[in-house]
Amino acid sequence: MVSQRLPTSLEPNALSAELDACRRAGRPLLDLTLSNPTGCGFSYPEQAILDALAPPAVLTYDPDARGQAGVRAAIAAYHGHGLGGADLILTASTSEAYSWLFKLLCDPGDDILVPSPSYPLFHWLAALEGVAARSVPALRHERWNLDLPGLEAACGPRTRAVVVVNPNNPTGHFLDRGEWAALLAFCARRGLALLVDEVFGDYALEPPAGHLPTALESEAPDCPLFVLSGLSKIAALPQIKLGWIAARGAQARALLEPLSFIADQYLSVSASAQAAAPELLRLAPAIQTGIKARLRANLAALDRALAPHPHLSRLPVEGGWSVLLRRPALDPAEACALRLLREAQVYVHPGHFFDLPGEGYLVLSLLPRAELFQEGVQRMVAALG
C-alpha cells in the first residue's frame, strides 16, 4: 500500500551492505567518499557561528513565503551580477528547491532532461513528484561536453525543463560559454525552463579558459532560468538548512508568484537559519579558503601516488569536491570497490553510481583529512597495482 513513486525495493546494494557490515563489526576503514565537511576536521569560526544562530529574532515567528527580505538581500549581495532580493525565494535545502520547481513546472507524467554523469538524487526527487528524469549522456573528448544533439533527440512533447550542475558533481567540469549559449538557445526554442545547480560554484580548482563561472551572468535569457545554491556548500554548513532559488530574466521572475504559493504551503525555512545567514555568508570566504587548500593538497597527494602507475590516472578537476579515477576495467567497478573495501579497508564509489559510462571509473572525495586521504590512496593504488 505504498506509492508507485517509491523504489520497488529498499534493499541496499552489495557495496552498501558490505559497508554496513564493516561498520557493525567495528572494522577500521578509510572512507574516501566523505562529503560532509563538518566531519573532515576543518577549522570553523565556531563562536562566530554560534553567535550568528542566537539573536533574539529566533524567538519569534514571522513567516514570509519567499524568506525574510533582509536575508534575501544579503544573499543577492553575496552573488552579485545585479541579482536583487526580489529575485530570490528561500528553501530549506537545494533538494527542496528542486521539488518546488518540479511542482511549479511539471504535471505528473511530464519529464525533465538531466545531462549525465550527474548526481543520482535527481532521479528520485523527480520521481517523488511524479516526474521522469531522463538522462542524456555527456560526451567526453579531453573534457566533458554536453551532447546538444542528444538533448534535442531526447526532448519530447512532455519535456518541461533541463537540469545542469555547474560545476558538475562528480566530474567537476564547468560548462563552457559556447555550450552555455547553445543550451540557452535550445531551451528557448523548445519552450523549456533551465535549472542550474551552482552549489560548488565557489570551488574552482583547475578551470579551463572559456568556462562559465556562473549562470547569473545571463541577465536576460530567452527562457525561464533558475539558479540554485545554499549554505551547505557555500559555507560548508549542511546542518544549517538553507538553500535558495534565484530567478533570472523576465520569464523566470513571472513565475515567482506561483512559486511563492508553493513555498507558502510549507514555510519550511527556519528562523534561526535565516537569522544566521548574513553573518554566515560573511564568514564563508574564509571557510572556503581552508577547504580549497585541503582539496588542492589531496589532489597533489593523489597525483604523487598515481605517478609510478601509468595504468591509473585521474581526470582534471575543474571544480567541486570530487575526483574521477580511471583504471583498467578488468572487473566491474562495483566488484572493484567491494574488493578494495574487503582487502584494503578503503571505501570508494564505483562510477556507475553517478551514471559514468563503462566500468573504468572510481569516484573519490577530496575532502577527507590529508593523512587519512593519503593513507587511503596508497592502499587503493597498491591494491589496484
Characterise this structure.
- With 385 residues, the protein is α/β, with parallel strands linked by helices.
- The protein folds into two domains: 132 residues, Alpha-Beta Complex (Aspartate Aminotransferase, domain 1); 237 residues, Aspartate Aminotransferase, domain 2, CATH 3.40.640.
- It has 13 helices and 15 strands.
- A seven-stranded mixed beta sheet has the order 2-10-9-8-7-3-4, with helices on both faces. Strands 11-12-15-14 form a four-stranded antiparallel beta sheet. Strands 1-13 form a two-stranded parallel sheet.
- It is globular and about 55 Å long.
- It starts with 13 loop residues before the first helix and ends with a helix.
- The mean pLDDT is 96.
Short description:
The protein is α/β, with parallel strands linked by helices and 385 residues long.
